[in-house]
Design a protein that fits this description.
The structure holds three protein chains of three kinds. Chain A has seven helices and ten strands. By secondary structure, chain A is of the alpha+beta class. In chain A, α2 crosses α3. Helix content of chain A is 25%, strand content 16%. Chain A is globular and about 65 Å long. Chain A has a five-stranded mixed beta sheet, sandwiched between helices. In chain A, strands 6-7-10 form a three-stranded antiparallel beta sheet. A two-stranded antiparallel ribbon of chain A has the order 8-9. In chain B, α9 runs antiparallel to α12. In chain B, the strands form eight sheets. Chain B has a seven-stranded mixed beta sheet. In chain B, strands 24-26-25-30-23-27 form a six-stranded mixed beta sheet. In chain B, strands 10-9-8-12-13 form a five-stranded parallel beta sheet, with helices on both faces. Chain B starts with 5 loop residues before the first strand and ends in an 18-residue tail after the last strand. Chain B is 29% helix and 17% strand. By secondary structure, chain B is an alpha/beta fold. Chain C is an alpha/beta fold. Chain C folds into five domains: 57 residues; 77 residues, Glutaredoxin; 212 residues, NADH-ubiquinone oxidoreductase 51kDa subunit (Rossmann fold, 3-Layer(aba) Sandwich), CATH 3.40.50; 83 residues, Ubiquitin-like (UB roll), CATH 3.10.20.600; 84 residues, Up-down Bundle (de novo design (two linked rop proteins)), CATH 1.20.1440. In chain C, 41% of the residues lie in helices and 14% in strands. Chain C has 22 helices and 16 strands. A six-stranded mixed beta sheet of chain C has the order 2-3-1-4-5-6, with helices on one face. Chain C has a six-stranded mixed beta sheet with strand order 7-13-12-16-14-15, with helices on both faces. In chain C, strands 10-9-8-11 form a four-stranded parallel beta sheet, with helices on both faces. In chain C, a hairpin with a 5-residue loop joins β14 and β15. The chains are: A alpha+beta, B alpha/beta, C alpha/beta.
Chain lengths: 230, 738, 558
Amino acid sequence: MTVTFMMDGKEVTAQDGQTLLDVARENGIDIPTICFHEATTANALCRICVVEVEGMRVLQPSCIVKAGANMKVQTRSEKVIRARKTILEMLASTMDLSDAPEILTMMDEYGASDERFPDAVRRESEVKDDNPMYIRDYSKCLLCWRCVQVCADDAQYTYAINFEGRGFETQIGTFFEKPIPETTCVMCGQCVGVCPTGALKPKREFLLEQGKTPAEISVMNTGRKQRKPR
Amino acid sequence: MIKPDRITTTTCPYCGVGCTLQLHVKDDFIYKVTSPFDAPVNQGNLCVKGRFGYDFVYHPKRVTTPLVRRYLLEGKPKPEGREQVYAVSVDGKPIPDSQVSNDWDWVETDWDTALNFVADNLVRIYQRDGSDAMAVYCCAKATNEDNYLLQKMYRALFRTNNVDHCTRLCHAGSVVALQQAVGSSAMSNTAGQVIMNDVFIVTGSNTSENHPIIALQMKEAVQKHGAKMIVVDPRRIDLVDMAEMWLPLKPGTNVPVFSAMAHVIVKENLVNWDFVKNRTENFDEFIESLEKFTPEYAEEISGVPAEDIRKSARMYAKAKNGAIYWGMGISQLSHGTASALALIHLAFLTGHVGRDGTGLNPLRGQNNVQGASDMGSMPFHYPGYMRVDNPENRAKWEKAWNIEEGGLSLKLGLTTTEILSNAHEGGIRALYIMGENPMMSEPNLNETRRHMTHLEFLVAQDIFINESGAFADVFLPATPFAEKDGTFSNTDRRVQRVRAAHKPRGQARPDWQIICDLALRIESRLGVSTSYWAYSNPEEILREMGSVNSDYAGITYERIDKVGLIYPVPTLDHPGTPTLFTESFPRGRGKFHPLDYVPVREEPDDEYPFILTTGRLLEHWHGGTMTRNSALNEIYPEARVEIHPADAEIHGIRNNDPVKVQSRRGEIVVRATVTEKTTVGVVFLPWHFHEAAANLLTNDALDPQAKIPEFKACAVQVFPARESDLPNPEVILDRGRY
Amino acid sequence: MSEIDLAPLKTAIAPYLSLGRSGLLPALHAAQKLYNWLPEEVASEIAKSLRIPLADVHGVIEFYSMFYNKPVGKKIIRVCTDQACALKNADGLLSHLCAHHGIQPHQTTDDLSLTIESSPCLGICEQAPVALVDDQAETNISPDFQQYELGVPRSIVDGTLRILTINCGNGPTRLKKYGEYAGLKKAKAMGRLDVIEEVKASGLIGRGGAAFPTGIKGEGAERAIGDQKYVVCNADESEPGTFKDRVLLNDDPHRVIEGMCITAYAVGATKGYIYIRGEYPYIVPVLENALTEAREAGYLGEHFDIEIRVGAGAYICGEETALFESIEGKRGFPRVKPPFPTTHGLFGEPTVINNVETLCNLPLIILEGAQGYRNYGTEKSPGPKLFCVSGDVAKPGLYEVSFGATMRELLDLAGGVADGKKLKAVLLGGAAGAFATAEHLDIKLTFEDLRAAGLPLGSGVVMVFDETRDMRDVLKRLGHFFAHESCGKCYPCQMGTQRQMEILDRVAEGRVIDGDFVRLQDVGWTMTDASICGLGQTAASAVLSAMKLWPELFEVKS
């Protein structure tokens, strides 16, 4: 089954069940995404991929809305652009985007300023360096949820992390903020693999960034006493 | 942000799953590993070893210069007392440094010197004592190309089939059973097909720790595809949380439990008669043997409630697609072959084999244990499972290797355990070990140590001096996965590329290059130059092997550049074979084998009341050559014995207490983990930790057919010990996952 | 820290073990009753008993503001500092209490005897100022804060009609007085499909705020295929200024239950939930008692039974899908729609979820017939309607009128603006609503007339501000309310409510900076256009309306 509809004034055809984002990508129409990831369940929460669908009261997230016959979709209407730009500006006022080049490029494209919200409270957090495998720097976390999802039913079924707080003060956390080794974490690093902003990072990459040399890094964590063969 | 100089796509060097890795390299240093989300095996998921466990490549203790013992370099006679190299006497007592001869010191040297010593000594012993004095351990961690060449060198130059590797210690029971019953020895279906199962049995496999990514797919099958999982395992492993049934059997009672399931399937007429009639043979004889295996009989032996056996049998038999996945809990027994046969019978009775989403699936342990076996790194087979005692097969390889007619040996070689137990005058004199670590992986290590000291000449080719390399006369520094090219064949029979991320550290060389160089030196000493050793790249090696082994005939590096191929791939345009036995079995009909219940060789008694079962941990790999030289060791630094709370209370043991675990063969001191993960009467130990090596305790009783040792059950006693008895008393880590 | 005795916990949570994850909120409530807060050992024991991942339990505790993972006082006083109470010196009450006990808001006394918090709307706006002292409402507070009453708040009910509120005003109505469930009896005689047809024909529109036709919902759920269907009563009445459901639930619980029974019968549901907000603890025994009576009378039983679930301080759980998540034992994150509850609701099954007042209309519709019901109200807004009138009026209270009454008529019923002052503004529909002014007084309070005027009916809030009121303070409280209550799931609302609050703080404090007007507008529009659920989509509604009415408030002071 296929459906035909209009996207940005152009007639497009979609397979049944395809999302507007799928269709846009197939037709070379660029819709930005942040929380969307091919390996995780789409939650439509960053709202950067919203589009305007005629007849709908509010903007629709293209990552989950299915293509329907006779839809009229605008991927870059005034409302859409305003929403994307404002969301990007709010992000830049909230968190450290320095490790998220894709989002920085997006900001340039939408003319979003990182100084739009002066005196804004930022989400800041100390780097959590509590295990030898990866670090967690939640001042770079934009709450895309991917790490929580892959730790749970999207991949690992380990459920070591969840949310703390709510609203603007939401942060990813462990049971009673315990260090990672004391949680059920198996350190598979699926979370690191899907983190879009460098909030989760392999320890060795972090150490290189801190200016440590490969030689210095290689002798770390090798001090554990072991009876060694001659 | 670090910008990588390059990102190298390769295959994980740890378990048999064969995950795709992308190594991010900066200044010849891997600082990050990712996996593409369209990777065919793992879809971007990795485990802690694959994602973080590559740092051993840069560990300061890695050896990157050829080493020889001082006595060789100084032209002295070999000193007595090889046990001195480990500073442990043959009785297991420490030897003070002052009593160790300086002649045993390692001295750094160049490749020419080292290889010449190796060639001189191997040829000397060969010419003196003949083929039967020569033996080699190939390596399930090394590439197909490395393994092919090493067995070729031994078969073609030393005319011996004393070629084996650790497959003997892991799935030999399964391999022999599958050979007997179907005529093949690999997984019949890919692991990824688990999501197509309605009902599947996981037995003797702690999949979450040993094949982590397959466990994810099993969980996905249950959570997202409505499959029902039956776990048959003495331990309450992680998968039990999602299982429909858990059958906690006493270790070593697989045959009665699975035969009772077969009994139920037959008695309740849940048999797939079409399949039995058309695809199998020897059914009648089998049925007779089944009569005594009532669920009640099985309950008495195994402790599994008869009703649960019935329920599980019905579930599996009635499934549209049923499958069985098993691990070493099936094979590592003195009746490992029979255990695996009992499972195979279930698939025969129900016809759950030969279709997508079904199958007989022994989960292979090592990254390339499948490939090393395929490459003929076994004493009975040439590459492609061609029996060495068959003159037709011999003729094929004589032709391929340019050897005179009748030149290759028809004599079956010795297995790993036999190679060492034959290490004495008149037996094995020279051993070449590539990558393996028998001093950790063999059962009854005190005995193994004694055998090691009896060797006349030992070559170790590895990346670290491990517990076995410590006994060597010459150490040849090879490269790990990240510094070489080649292929691995995973448990799915999927042949995938391995690629170097950067040049070898120091003077280290890829194994295949070391072997070629050495082979030429041996040839010149033997005065022959028949076989081909001048390979310019590993693909040439694989193609040579594929020209005789039709399973690999259609595989080229170009074809597997992006996605691996699942063999058999008989021609260059063949798409690969994810599901085997769709029409028939390699031996024609599947053969039922009447079975008897044979108890484990050493049952618990008053003196040794616990059954010890051993296994592996998520964070570590086998003998620990890689993982214990990695940050992985930081997150799981010590061996711990798991004991059930009820047993712990009786023996006055609390969590974290030091305890002595003692068997008739040895003893170790470790901390206790008091946990319901194990069952009453059963204690569990991982075998990765040399300072508390579980294999000091295990029983070296062998399965008569497969020659696999009984790692999974022996009798032990557990006593409270003192903190000061612990090898590393300062190490305590509060891990949530303990 | 001393070892915690977990034995009583095991007993207390035993009834919830069979519920699995869905038993989490009840178990946490039970545990908090025992230990006053939720220490790590307690949370861990609950997680293990209910087989829920530890981190998830932590996540849930962290989400709900009435669950505590740090020690709090034996007694907790929650002072409402929301709009209606603020008009009646709630800030004074809070500072008085704090000063008296020597602590700051959201602090606990050293002896762990008392915690004082400021709270979002407690739903007793007609008796402002109010507080919640543990499970009891503190009302009738004298201006010097020395006199007060503790217990269940009174019901102040009046109006031109007394149909829905016929039993309201004299405390809980027992089944004996309520009489048999005549509507349910008649419904069963009519047959399921006819009941749905009758409700459709009545034109009943949901009273919770989203204004969806009730009959259509029922029809959707009736047609949906599922193993089990659910009826959920949304009694998470949290919209600031709303208190109608409190009165209906407390005074006439059987009407609500009968409405649920009729719905269950019509759609074929076998299980119902009443999800009541945690701020109404005193109603829980009333409901329990009524459910027992209904079971004894055979209205509830194996064919259909109802369970009470108590929220724990999260406005978002009034959003229907967030409410489902909460019943399922999760953080109250709204789900993406579609799919809608009628096909994929509670536990993924077909579900009808209706507001308390909506359900109360059902017995009436069945008994009077659609035509009889339509004798009340207008063509497009049929039936009786409850309005929650609060703020600066002479007689704040719950007023029942026929749809079609104007705002002026309603204010007249409530005795007009208090103290003879002039009207400055009316907040219609609550925090998620919009401001009206004197020029709107003659608009009929119907769905259609208000829509035409660009105003929302919402949940029936009519909050009056007299000419002396500083609207900047009202806006500031709006900003804080939404920032506190945003669940944090979607970016527009998660960050937008924070940025909106910051700008409104500047407005209130006279620190407006260049560009704030446009900034506030962009944030508001972005939340309205792009948020995932009703909370975010309306979080700027009142603010944007204020910007139109009083742009001067947002100007930079030079």
